[in-house]
Amino acid sequence: MPTTLPARGQSKDQVLATLKQKHANDARWKDGRTFSLVYFAGDEVSALVKEAYGEFIAENGLSPLAFPSLQQMECEVVSIAASLFHGNEQVAGTMTSGGTESIMMAVKTAREFGRHVEGHQRPHVIFPKSAHPAFDKAMHYFDVDFDHAPLRPDFTVDVEAMARLIRPETVLLVGSAPSYPQGVVDDIGAIAALAKSRGLLCHVDACLGGFLLPFARKLGRAVPTWDFEVDGVTSISADLHKYGYAAKGASVILHRTGELRRHQFFTYGGWNGGLYASPSFCGTRPGGAIAAAWAVLHHLGEEGYLARTSTVIETTQALQRGIAACGLTVLGAPVGSVFSFSSSEFNVYELGDAMDARGWKLDRQQHPPALHLMVTPAHAPVARQFLEDLAACVSSLRRGEPAPEGSAAMYGMVGAVPDRAQLDGFLVEFLDGLFPRA
After folding, report:
1. How many CA atoms lie within 13 A of 223 on its CB side?
2. Cα(397)–Cα(390) distance, rounded to whole angstroms?
3. Same domain assignment for residues 306 and 286
4. 333: which DSSP letter?
5. Do 198 and 320 lie in a common domain?
6. Which pLDDT tens digit goes with each residue over 2-54?
7. What are the pLDDT digits (tens) for 236-268?
8. What confidence tens digit (pLDDT) does each residue in 167-220 have?
9. CA distance 311 to 317
């Protein structure tokens, strides 16, 4: 039924009551039942983030002249990130609205570098098949040529295959730290060395790991080198609204030099509305997201991040041990807090449906079929219950008992369709149904 603007406004209490009612059927992330999308660091951090965001809810980071406080906070956030990622005083960056925008800015920078420095009319980018689809989105939006590099059996990118894909127009190589599907860290050292030897840029997508891996390493976790410590890495993306525990949407894109960052900017001096200069993709830049990111970094400090990272890593390891004890297989060698698991005995999607019926929300993956977990501090109190429910669901499937109806049929159908165009058409229809016409 079409919705029209109410003739008369409702009271604050009415509006808030309706919002809470709408919220009731959403994913239960606060109690640890959801393993993606939300990164909850506790009520105290959440309250601070809300208050800081509210303090700057009306301000627009597009104009540093009007709001110098936002410009200062953004510079401090970028500087903190650079120091965590072994950057020096030459590193330059900006905040963005999230990982997709940060990745798009890395690609835009590479495209402009390729055109204006290297003289390539059609710059070319190579990124792993496991890289976030935001790279594919950036290629589509910015009309950049690209190749997907294949993966090794351990799910890291095949750097030798990447080398064979390099062509005269190639400007950028990409690695993930870690990749989303299996949580493995690509061989950034080898990728960066290859890039440097060919005079190419090298981007590390650390949207997931940027604000977790440095602290995991300080805690003694074996973390491969992946940041500006690696010679040849020229840019890094890292999300503050993931393991930085900031409000959405907040991310950073960092470049090894200010000269590289200049290729990210967009300027237009011919508009009759005045001079226009934008550092990133968005025009309006929500001041609340900048302030909330600054606030949580200063509130938690190194001690707070170390404590939460310790909880996350310990919980992740406990979950992986319990999953293996159920006879399931953790894929690859995940480094941080993100991993997936599968089964050689039964349809793992049916296991996901059985867990859904018990109130858990696990993401599905394909190529190979797997279930995916992204662990946060919210999962520590419920890890034991999760493993108990998982064991019960595994036992039920082994006995041949049918799983509840869910996504298994859909993923089975998708896996049987070899034509990507058909799958894309299916997804377009799906989105069209989610966002109906007025």
Report:
1. 24
2. 11
3. no
4. -
5. no
6. 688 888 999 999 999 999 888 888 877 778 788 888 888 888 999 999 999 99
7. 999 999 999 999 999 999 999 999 999 999 988
8. 999 999 999 999 999 999 999 999 999 999 999 999 999 999 999 999 999 999
9. 10
Which tokens is 340 given?
A: 């997936």
Structure tokens at 403: 């799983």
Q: How many domains does the chain have?
A: 2
361 domain-assigned: yes
Burial class (CB in 10 A: 0-12, 13-18, 19+), 165: middle
- Domain containing residue 228: 52-297
Spatial separation of the C-alpha atoms in residues 363 and 352, rounded to whole Å: 8
Residue 203 lies in a domain: yes
Residue 434 pLDDT greater than 80, yes or no: no
- d(C-alpha 21, C-alpha 68), whole Å: 39
232 lies in the same domain as 376: no
Q: How many CB atoms lie within 10 A of CB 278?
A: 16
Is 307 a member of any domain? yes
With 0-12 / 13-18 / 19 or more C-beta atoms within 10 angstroms meaning exposed / middle / buried, residue 303 is: exposed
